[in-house]
Amino acid sequence: MDANLARLQSVTPPEGESFADSLLHGLGKTPKEIACKYFYDEAGSRLFDAICELPEYYQTRTEIALLRRHAGEIAGLMGPNVEILEFGAGSLRKVRILLDAAHAPIAYTPLDISGDYLKTVVHALAADYPALALRPLVGDFTRPLALPALPDNPRRVGFFPGSTIGNFKPDAAMALLRAMRASLNGGGLLAGVDLVKDPVKLHAAYNDAAGITALFNKNLLMRANRELGADFDPEGFAHYAPYNAAAHRIEMYLISLRRQSVSLCGRPFEFAAGEPVHTEDSHKYTIESFREMACRAGFNPRAVWTDEERLFSVHWLESR
Ligand code: AVJ
User: Fold this and answer.
1) In 3-state terms, what secondary structure has residue 55?
2) Would you say 98 and 75 are in contact if contact means Cβ atoms under 8 Å apart?
3) Ligand 1 pocket test, candidate residues 169, 280, 312, most atoms within 8 A of CB
4) Half-sphere exposure of 237 (CA within 13 A, CB side)
5) Distance CA 2, CA 124 (A)
6) How far apart are CA 193 and CA 162, in angstroms?
7) Rounded to an integer, what distance in angstroms lies between the CA atom of residue 309 and that of residue 289?
8) How far away, in angstroms, is 1 Cα from ligand 1 center?
9) DSSP symbol at 96
10) Could you tell me whether strands 243-244 and 267-271 are parallel, antiparallel, or unpaired per DSSP bridges?
11) Cβ of 159 less than 6 Å from ligand 1
12) If you placed Cys at 109, which of 49, 74, 135, 269 could pair as Cys (CB 3.0 to 4.6 Å)?
């Protein structure tokens, strides 16, 4: 047991909607949908880590290079003795860059929806940063959060990398930024945002040659089979991820390849041949359009960093 590592704490109210509720609701709708947050059970989190290593998926390596290149400046903007609160912490890889550059950070609070995965990855971090108080939280950052206070109430800064913001429609994204601002008690937010670009490059990033994104998408069905005893045939669905240029977003679907019936929680669900199930949106922004949205959410956008090809952006937003 690492002395600096607190026990995994749940911050999502237990009466909340479950995967089963959400799936029954989403598959009962026309058109059918599954909420993208359910990608991230332990298997899905690992598949996502594999996506981040793909040659076509430029996002992760571009963002990491930006964080490394500007770590000193970022640390200066964050200031000393902070608590870093990460929304959707995943593999905990990127925060190391911040922790190494930050001036005497006091605490790191990773929040993730996959408690199993968080539990596994947080130990290595605890061993590498013995002076840091680690407060792993399992929860859903789209719901109201009851964040536990830390002993000395350090200044809090938010970290929201990976363009996770892109999963939300613009109105919801704005509301989410607002809610994050409220949970930061006046502290700033460092956010990573994928940019609009050549649609061919965007398309390739979500339709990789190795088929990992297809497996990631189909993990929703596998997860329903594992956790809820559903009988989805993953071969009976195709991964389909077109770029909707007018809406500036990648849209992901699972398309039923034949007419089929699937049993879920004792109820039959019919799929027509060719019927889509919407599983994810991944919105792309320009630097300006993101800064405008951040303004409307009550932030003052300050520094912004991008790469030579303008593939990805990292934004420092101050609370107003
Ligand atoms: C983690 C939500 C940012 O939208 O690019 C990767 C998830 N989906 N490939 C993204 C994802 C398909 C990813 N985000």
Assistant:
1) coil
2) yes
3) 280
4) 28
5) 10
6) 7
7) 18
8) 33
9) H
10) unpaired
11) no
12) 135
Quote the ligand 1 centre to 223 CA distance (angstroms): 18
| Alpha-carbon gap, residue 260 to 231, rounded angstroms | 11
Q: For residue range 53-74, list pLDDT tens digits in order.
A: 999 999 999 999 999 999 999 9
What are 79-124's pLDDT values in tens digits?
A: 999 999 999 999 999 999 999 999 999 999 999 998 989 999 999 9
Residues of the chain scoring pLDDT < 70? 1, 13-16
Reduce the DSSP state of residue 195 to 3 states and report it: strand
Tell me the pLDDT of the chain averaged across its residues: 96
Look at the block and give the residue holding tokens 């047991």.
1
Distance CA 89, CA 86 (A): 6
Is 270 in a helix, a strand, or coil?
A: strand
CA–CA separation, 254 and 275 (whole Å): 8
Residue 282 CB less than 6 A away from ligand 1: yes
Burial of 3 from C-beta contacts in 10 A (0-12 / 13-18 / 19+):
exposed
Classify burial at 160, counting beta carbons within 10 Å of its beta carbon; exposed 0-12, middle 13-18, buried 19 or more: buried
Asked if residues 181 and 189 have their Cβ atoms less than 8 Å apart, the reply is: yes
What backbone phi and psi angles, to 5 degrees, belong to 5? -105, 115
